[in-house]
């Protein structure tokens, strides 16, 4: 059985649901018995991106918003590799939204996992593309003016052939199941994982 | 010295100027002449004013000339803005337009379409410069097909010449080793291919688009993947990912697209991923003048990307150097796992010359030693954060310092492999001209024709960054130092001053979107 954990202890806040995603990914990689040498994980910037240091696998800790095009480049260069991109709502639905749309249109066989906590948390709590309209955050003390991005609807509109799933981190077993389905799926897939930030997300409850 | 001849064809976009230019260049090439060409066109698809000009000679030619021997206006009204390029001897043809009356309208009418004006003109030109008619017609039929009315059009132009003009006395071409006609973009593409390019990623942007078209068209034959993604940020990011997976990778763009790629240049340097950035300059800032030329992005290229890191910046001066440095760029990127920028400009990218046959040149592939997935190597994380050898993030002061020093100490090894300067002329000359990039051609062409050429040496810098500080010594050995650049601020001077004690005594700068012509350089040097 491959151990996919590095020796570095995760730095997330106690109670953070990124642990659910981390554990889910470890379990799924083991369950699917993926070849470590042929699996590459690309991480975006943000709390979930810090998982780069906690996993023992081939990887790129890319720039903010760029996990998807980097993953696309890896898959194009070597289609034999299993390629997984992990990011947050800021990187995937904000800074890198055009890349999400392009990869879904291309239907390239990569898996995109998003820790969607509706907030920029590593930068201490500003509004993100999925923050509900009207929510008050540090960057929007008068309330968010935009309507939020709805990831599943978006992917469906762009390419109905792509697989898009939405699961809450409150249900870890469902997270595991969805991850397994996503990685097995041939073609583009998005797994949107709903969570709330334990440190800065109280106003969103 | 062999006489040079310059031919210019002008007309609105859509009249086939580019295709007739290409045919003329092929005919001249297969007739054994040396040639350089140059096109001007505005950023539109139909209408406007386009020109194609070619300078050829039985002897070596380094650049097109400004002054014209034969000028053809494909429709009336297109010679007037070129009057300053005419001498008393210039043959100017236009349809009922105050110059030699070439009845293109009437002749096209007889052939049944206005589209034949270009091929009629080609026939006339070939007659005037005493080309072997059968050879020319063979090239025309190869291009248009054996039954094409264009052959009739060529014949009509030739006949009109026989009936109305005297042939010019043009020395026969005798060159044997110039085999193919390529522009700078294609030459760079051949170079990248011969260095084992696996993947080329680009978003169209003039004047770099030709490289995308060339590689896209040849991707199966060249066994490479060519990708055109959603934007330039994706272009560079896809290239970085591909490089991590073991592909030899390059991207192509111009200044505006390169601006979007600069975050990735910084990332490549931090993560240790080799990627070639082909940057073909045009005048900025902003959208600037898309279809014109400039050397305005030298400092931008050298300083691109946030943070302190090593990159290499190379600048070829002509098509054959674009091939050589194209190869070298990809090998440097892979040998040192760094971003490498290859600087071209519109004047090089979109101008053609006849060159050696690149297809017959040997491959040179220096492989990266970095770990890649799928080969049973030691696992690694390629990290945009400061990191240790395994790739895990570090913030500890000592570890961070060590990592930075490990990256920066490659500079000596990189400097050794940068392209050497070209020094033309005698080191006993009184004056040294210093320049870089595509100005090479106009400078060499000017010096070729100057009676006082022994007064000048010419130093062409090709390794722009890291720049060899010994260049300062070479320049300082000459009493007079002349800077020539196709930009407004003298960016090479700024760069040299940051690393050497060079002080120029004269600066010749041009920044109107047009390249230097040898006539202008001659005049400025003797001023």
Number of domains of chain B: 3
Structural class call of chain B reads alpha/beta
Q: Could you name the CATH class of the largest domain in chain B?
A: Alpha Beta
**Biggest sheet overview of chain B:** 7 strands, mixed
Count of runs of 4 or more consecutive helical residues of chain B: 18
Mean pLDDT metric of chain A: 97
Q: Which chains make the largest contact?
A: A-B, 37 and 41 residues
Shape annotation of chain A: globular
Q: Label the CATH architecture of chain A.
A: 3-Layer(aba) Sandwich
Number of separate strands of chain B: 21
The end-to-end distance of chain A, rounded to whole angstroms, is 39 Å
* The CATH C-level class name of chain A: Alpha Beta
Shape-level CATH architecture of the largest domain in chain B? 3-Layer(aba) Sandwich
How much β-strand is present in the residues of chain B? 15-25%
Going by CATH, what is the homologous superfamily of the largest domain in chain B? Thiamin diphosphate (ThDP)-binding fold, Pyr/PP domains
Q: Beta-strand percentage of chain A?
A: 15-25%
> How many distinct beta strands of chain A?
8
Determine the N-to-C terminus distance of chain B.
Answer: 24 Å
Q: Can you tell me the residue ranges of chain A where pLDDT is under 50 for at least 5 consecutive residues? A: none
Structural Rg of chain B: 25 Å
Write the H/E string of chain A, N to C.
HEEHEHHEEEHEHE
